[in-house]
Amino acid sequence: MAGLEPFARGGNRLCFVNPDNCHQCVKVARPGFSAAEKRRKKSFPKSLKPLSSFDDNLQEYRTLTAIHRRSGDPVLDLIPRCYGLVPTDCGPGIVTDLITDADGRISITLKQYLWEQGITPTLRQSLEQFRRQWSTLAVPSRDLLLHNVVVQQTAGGALRLMVIDGLGWSDLIPLAQLLPVLARRKALRKLDNLEARMQTLLTTKQRGGPWGYHGYLEPRQRRIENDDT
């Protein structure tokens, strides 16, 4: 990753276009946020947890592969495919699909789309489809945050929503993993909360409030420099 600029920065990780495959994303830990450094900052007894529990990439790899194994290929309409863990000069990285629009640019977040365009008829249609698919598959997730959902613009002009982070059960004992009815109920609640966050963001903008910190891509950040297509 040396010499490359990340196209996005999260709280713990940096996101790069894979220099070996421009259709893939590589996430690595930000400086100061490696698994060892994160555990070192914890107080007793959390500092006794295994190192793997502080490794965001390893946890995401396990989560993505488990969801794909459980739900099959239909879930790849909602989440990126994971290609595994790789060593990089910035530490271990996880490789997933890079979500891009039909024109080849990196897709923007739902947060950015709402801020710039509001709830368009096309977005409303894609939200309804997303809700049906997400609840049917009962995809396990934490809160669906606006900057963790991207809006992919297809060649036909339709939009597709995909969740790129925040997946997996947050419960210490994930009972929903064993009870499909509970899993679907939890998925529906997450969807309702997502709709509420959308309205909160639109109200904030209407009142002249601040954008916030995460989820905005400048035009230059959306361009893929090593795209040979």
Please give a structural write-up.
The protein is of the alpha+beta class. It has 2 domains: 1-98, Phosphorylase Kinase, domain 1; 100-228. Helices cover 34% and strands 15% of the residues. The protein is built from 6 helices and 8 strands. The chain has a 5-stranded antiparallel beta sheet with strand order 1-2-3-5-4, with helices on one face. The protein has a 3-stranded antiparallel beta sheet with strand order 6-7-8. The two termini are 22 Å apart. The mean pLDDT is 93.
Q: What summary fits the major beta sheet?
A: 5 strands, antiparallel
Biggest sheet, spatial arrangement of strands: 1-2-3-5-4
Average the pLDDT over all residues and give the rounded result: 93
What's the gyration radius in Å? 18 Å
Number of helices: 6
Envelope shape? globular
Subunit organisation of the chains? single chain
Secondary structure: number of strands: 8
Q: Topology, pairings included?
A:
Layout: E1 8-9, E2 13-17, E3 24-29, H1 35-40, H2 56-71, E4 82-86, E5 93-97, E6 108-109, H3 110-117, H4 121-137, E7 149-153, E8 159-163, H5 180-206, H6 219-222
Antiparallel strand pairs: 1-2, 2-3, 3-5, 4-5, 6-7, 7-8
Helix pairs in contact: 4-5
Task: Briefly say what this structure is.
The protein is 34% helix and 15% strand. With 229 residues, the chain is an alpha+beta fold.
